[in-house]
Write a structure and sequence with these properties.
Layout lengths: L2 H5 L13 E3 L1 H16 L10 H6 L4 E3 L4 H27 L1 H19 L17 E3 H17 L5 H5 L5 E2 L4 E3 H18 L1
Antiparallel strand pairs: 1-2, 3-4, 3-5
């Protein structure tokens, strides 16, 4: 084995079969390099990664790319790490009271949405072709979230991350972008208090 081959680092994830689609290898590796630079404090303004950015990151499909499940699982862990660091930094610079106020504001916003009437929690698409989620599926999750926030019923961040809803057509559903943005905030809150 040549010295060059011995020094090669293995890829961070398994690749799918050449005819199957995975995540774009270069995009994943570029994003991980950005995250590593932020974590190590060697980033510049163009490479700063936050927990929110990790949560919103998407990669293009590529034949023979990285296994999507492995990458998604790693991103979930990475988001948790960055959320913890952001919470610790806020507490260190502004004190625990500032962090509690931030959590309280976010919690209040989310609870307001949860306590809307079932069927009226999110906007419905105003035109045809806008993706939407099944209202009953979303309202069922909202009921579970009320139980989590107000009755100490168990629920995990991973359960929120992995939730799926049936698709709906037009006015028969909640607009996907509205629900997704709300769930992003729920994950942000849960990650900050766990």
């Amino acid at each position: 084995m040549s010295q060059e081959n011995a020094q090669k680092t293995p890829p961070p994830f398994e690749r799918v079969a050449p005819q199957e689609f995975g995540y774009n290898v270069k995009q994943v590796e570029h994003f991980l390099a950005r995250a590593r630079a932020t974590f190590n404090g060697t980033d510049d303004d163009s490479t700063v990664v936050t927990s929110h950015l990790v949560r919103r990151t998407a990669f293009e499909p590529q034949k023979g790319g990285y296994n999507a499940r492995e990458v998604d699982s790693a991103l979930d862990r990475l988001e948790d790490v960055f959320a913890q660091r952001e919470r610790d930094a806020l507490i260190q610079t502004e004190g625990e009271e500032a962090w509690l106020q931030q959590v309280g504001r976010l919690s209040s916003i989310l609870r307001g949405r949860l306590h809307r009437e079932p069927g009226e929690r999110f906007r419905r698409p105003s035109r045809r072709g806008v993706p939407s989620y099944n209202i009953d599926d979303v309202d069922d999750l909202c009921a579970q979230l009320i139980g989590y926030f107000e009755e100490d019923m168990p629920m995990s961040v991973d359960a929120i991350r992995s939730v799926t809803f049936r698709e709906a057509k037009g006015q028969d559903g909640y607009e996907e972008s509205q629900v997704d943005a709300f769930l992003d905030r729920v994950v942000e809150l849960m990650a900050s208090i766990d």
